[in-house]
């Protein structure tokens, strides 16, 4: 399995977890990290989706969720803590990118709904047409 498919599985988890938690939070951050790690190492994302549906059952308590996740984590190959820390860093970066993209999409929708997207596009185009020389400050005039 390539590194990109592993990362793709983690990214796919973000939207699945968003959907599962749209009404109420179900997972602690540590549990999400466990799901990301499992997804990162699974070859079939369908298995990851089944796991998410299993551990998101509303009748499960935190201990039961942890027990199911730990069972799946135990089946992964062992790795040093330093590797796990790097994986966590990758997961955090990917999640920040996912959240940024989601926020940008929401902003675009708000601008479109308020009829401001064309005005923003025009403003950006105007700024890009200006030579950079017009944006510099003359130190002699500033004093």
Overall tally of structural domains? 1
Strand residues, percent: under 5%
Low-confidence runs of at least 5 consecutive residues: 136-143
Could you tell me how far the N terminus lies from the C terminus, measured between alpha carbons in angstroms?
Answer: 62 Å
Q: Element order, helices and strands?
A: HHHHHHH
Q: What is the overall silhouette?
A: elongated
Q: Whole-number radius of gyration? A: 22 Å
The profile of the biggest β sheet is: none
Average the pLDDT over all residues and give the rounded result: 85
Helix content: over 70%
> How many alpha or pi helices?
7
Report the structural category. mainly alpha
Number of strands: 0
Question: What does this 3D model show about the protein?
Answer:
It contains seven helices and no strands. With 143 residues, it is mainly α. It has one domain (3-134). The longest helix is centred in the last third of the chain and has 33 residues, at 81-113. The chain starts with a helix and ends with a helix.
In a nutshell, what does this entry contain?
It contains seven helices and no strands. The chain is an all-alpha fold.
List its traits.
mainly alpha, single chain, 143 residues
Question: What is the topology?
Answer:
Blueprint: H1 3-20, H2 29-41, H3 45-55, H4 62-74, H5 81-113, H6 117-129, H7 139-142
